[in-house]
Amino acid sequence: SYILLESNTGTVITEKDADVQMPPASITKIMTLLLVMEAVDSGKISMEDTITVSEHASSMGGSQIWLKEGEQMALTDILKAAVVSSANDASVALAEHVAGSEESFVNMMNERAAQLGMKNTVFHNASGLDTEGHVSSARDIAIMAQELLKHPRILDYTTIWMDTLRGGATELVNTNKLIRFYEGATGLKTGTTEDAGYCLCATAQRDGQSLVAVVMGCTTTADRFSAARKLLDFGFANYTVFDPSSLELVLEPVPVKHGTTGQVECEMGSMQPILLQKGQEKEVTTRINLPEDVMAPVEQGQSLGSLELLHGEEKIGEYPILAKNGIEKMTFSHAFFKLLG
């Protein structure tokens, strides 16, 4: 299964079997990393924290940096190990630091997945080791990857190709080979287990476009990198992100009936970017919809109309036009003092 998503706009470009539940292997760690970054941003934990490794964290199998019970390591280094080397022991150490236990952290993972609308995901651990019932889908992985990318600091770790820990004694090499060999690659996470096969959530940025490609269940590691590369190439070659705030717009004021002022100035509300096929951005036209007048009172920020983006006759976007300032309703006292003035 696979999916290709543009993360700035949330637009799915292409997909196949994207809602089929499959073991996600270490791509699970995207949720682990998301909860860690959210805990940092909220002030619950700090990048300057020191983590003392528990017996449970040190007992993880699979990919690891051989943490020992009682060993102390900076959170930033343990985070680096989880991201770059996909270390299971590091992931569990992070989970315990955030929630107190891996079990409590898994509850947080599932709660966050539900909040994000990840309908085909059930987590049973923080690392991605094969466990019965531990499943996700390509779409759900793209959703949580999109959310993780809202924390730019994570890219300081996901873009590392090689590094060391423990004063140079432990070497780290990124399991995501695209970081070194694909232009604009920013991450994000590999996954490999017997049940899951070879999986990859690959992210890359070029010219204002941020793509998320998820491939699951590949038969070889070469296949997953090849498949992800083809998806990313397709997205960058055929699509572009259009920023409607770049448009030169003239918004005429709207007359106000029975107001203390005869008209209200207009301004554009939030203008989210949209994904277009390359070339379409040169053919975008606009249509401004505003009423002939409005009745006072008018509140600042009140919706007055809309701006439509058109490609030919097709509406490809719509954005609110708002009142730039408030206008009070004319009362007898207002009128009296106006006459006196």
Describe this protein's structure.
The chain is an alpha+beta fold and 341 residues long. The chain is 29% helix and 29% strand. It contains ten helices and 18 strands. The protein has helices spanning 29-42, 55-58, 75-84, 88-99, 102-115, 138-148, 155-158, 178-181, 221-238, 332-340; strands at 2-6, 11-16, 50-52, 72-74, 162-165, 170-173, 185-193, 197-206, 209-218, 239-242, 254-257, 263-264, 266-268, 274-277, 284-289, 294-295, 303-311, 314-323. A five-stranded antiparallel sheet has the order 2-1-9-8-7, with helices on both faces. Strand 7 (185-193) and strand 8 form a beta hairpin. The termini are far apart. The relative contact order is 0.13. The mean pLDDT is 95.
In short:
The chain is α+β, with helices and mostly antiparallel strands. Helix content is 29%, strand content 29%. A hairpin with a 3-residue loop joins strand 7 (185-193) and strand 8.
> What's the rounded overall pLDDT mean?
95
Helix content: 25-40%
> Which strands sit side by side, in order, in the main sheet?
2-1-9-8-7
Helix and strand composition category: alpha+beta
Number of helices: 10
Task: Give keywords.
four-stranded antiparallel β-sheet, 29% helix, alpha+beta, single chain
Please give the structural blueprint.
Layout: E1 2-6, E2 11-16, H1 29-42, E3 50-52, H2 55-58, E4 72-74, H3 75-84, H4 88-99, H5 102-115, H6 138-148, H7 155-158, E5 162-165, E6 170-173, H8 178-181, E7 185-193, E8 197-206, E9 209-218, H9 221-238, E10 239-242, E11 254-257, E12 263-264, E13 266-268, E14 274-277, E15 284-289, E16 294-295, E17 303-311, E18 314-323, H10 332-340
Parallel strand pairs: 11-16
Antiparallel strand pairs: 1-2, 1-9, 3-4, 5-6, 7-8, 8-9, 10-14, 11-12, 13-18, 15-17, 17-18
